What does this fold into?
Amino acid sequence: MIRDEETLNILLDSIARFVREVLVPNEALVAETDTIPPAIVAQMRELGLFGLSIPEAYGGLELSMEEEVRVAFEIARTSPAFRSLIGTNNGIGSQGIVIDGTEAQKQYYLPKLAAGEIIGSFALTEAGSGSDAASLRTTAVRDGDFYILNGSKRYITNAPEASIFTVMARTDPVKRGASAISAFIVEKDTPGLSLGKIDKKMGQQGAHTCDVIFENCRVPAANIIGGKEGVGFKTAMKVLDKGRLHIAAVCVGAAERMLADALAYAMERQQFGQPIAEFQLIQAMLADSKAEIYAARSMVLDAARRRDNKEDISTEASCCKLFASEMCGRVADRSVQIHGGAGYISEYAAERFYRDVRLFRIYEGTTQIQQIVIARNMIKAAQK
It folds into this structure.
């Protein structure tokens, strides 16, 4: 759903120019220093990039899902680290509050998230529960007007930068499964909350993850999302449905950038007296990449429009995440192959993107989890 095409195009043009003139020239610096310069973060705030999906009533742009994925197509045409910084505020770090938060929680936290004053983070994964999220072991025990949280979370995106965490914890020690899990807003300076060392990753330098540890961490009962126990896991699944569609759009944008770089290199690189783009086997890799990107883009736009129409897109979101992330990996591989030896050298973006995009097949639900979700939904629909 596009509410105002002209306004959206102005926003997309501004973001495309920002990516082209500011972010792309700083990709190598971010990769080398593992840090996004503060001046760039300030420009992101000025552009409103931290509040793309947050409602206007709380200071955000309140983009529809179709508008959001079109923005993601543009901002993903550079190092994924830049998008990762703003991604949690627009996705998993804020959407739990947007979807199921109380009015008091929305009024207090969402304007700060939209302005980029604070960074939100989503703490679900644990050492013993990743794909099997319902088996998490972090506990939250009621103690008067507080809950006492104990446990640890692993691989938490933007945790080193975060001011607040949406934390999934078990509030019912007897029940098994999703109904025993609640969601809490936990501020970083809460006594008993600590962070592990920043993880050293294969790629996506500049985007940080680390463990988040809770040791008798006292959280006000008012900070339980939705104001009651037992809705946390449902909140998480709603957040992930939207997040999977967003990541699929990011995969499309990254693939478009890699293909553009590969095409430019193939037209410039000479072998046997002609550009390698003239050779049919190079053309085949370019054509396969173009076709797969077009298919993924079409899938993402269709699913986004369905979500805007209030349809249940759990299956479609998983289809998009599955296809787009796998497609992105194939395009990355072809890009390195087209670059030849240069694709293995760090001064070319192909090498960095090859490592960066590998994560897309893992986080927000692995490829294998998407396959399970899709198949189970198909079976459930057939049994009705």
About this structure: The chain has a mean pLDDT of 93. The two ends are 30 Å apart (CA to CA). Residues 120-230 form a domain with the Butyryl-CoA Dehydrogenase, subunit A; domain 2 fold (CATH 2.40.110.10). Strands lie at 120-123, 139-143, 146-157, 164-170, 181-187, 193-195, 209-220, 270-271, 274-275.
